[in-house]
Amino acid sequence: MAGTPGVPSGFEEFYRRDHRRILLFVRKARGAEWGDAWDAVQAGFVKALERWDRIKDPSTWIRTTVLREFDAQRRRPREDFQRALRAQSGEQPDFTAQWDLKEETRQVYDCLTRLPRRQAEVMAWTFDGYKPGEIARILSEANPDAPTNPAAVRASLALARRRLRESLLDEGGTT
């Protein structure tokens, strides 16, 4: 079975397999609204397509790139977003209807939005299966002026877990 003409081998499968995961990752790491996460993820996948033959670790690369895209979106003037929305030809999907997220998952995501940025980001990487050493390397590569070590990641993770537990208990959830 042939792939889409002009699309590098493996990219379509990667997109289908990871698109949803990356949207959820941005939500966890930055507390992103679905539409903002969608924009950042789409921009990230476009960049991935353009560089596909040079990307060694697509899963890590796309997460790092999408977080940068999201952060760049947040820094742009609001008018840029409004202009882009007017120019948009189609509706964005209704994520909550499309994905049946459990109530517990929604509660955790809501609590993640209240964590300090670094703690939320460390939790998002952890939820996606990354270990503290890997997270420290990724964060250090993303911000060489402020390198991160595994001990700092573990400390952020411990604080985040405690705050999440407290927050969930305050909301009447169970842990």
TrEMBL record:
PANTHER family: RNA POLYMERASE ECF-TYPE SIGMA FACTO, RNA POLYMERASE SIGMA FACTOR HI_1459-RELATED. The keyword Transcription applies. The keyword Oxidoreductase does not apply. It comes from the Bacteria. Belongs to the sigma-70 factor family. ECF subfamily. One of its GO terms (molecular function) is DNA binding. Gene3D superfamilies: 1.10.1740.10, Winged helix-like DNA-binding domain superfamily/Winged helix DNA-binding domain. One of its GO terms (biological process) is DNA-templated transcription initiation. Keywords: DNA-binding, Sigma factor, Transcription, Transcription regulation. This is Uncharacterized protein. InterPro entries: RNA_pol_sigma-70-like (IPR039425), RNA_pol_sigma_r2 (IPR013325), RNA_pol_sigma_r3/r4-like (IPR013324), WH-like_DNA-bd_sf (IPR036388).
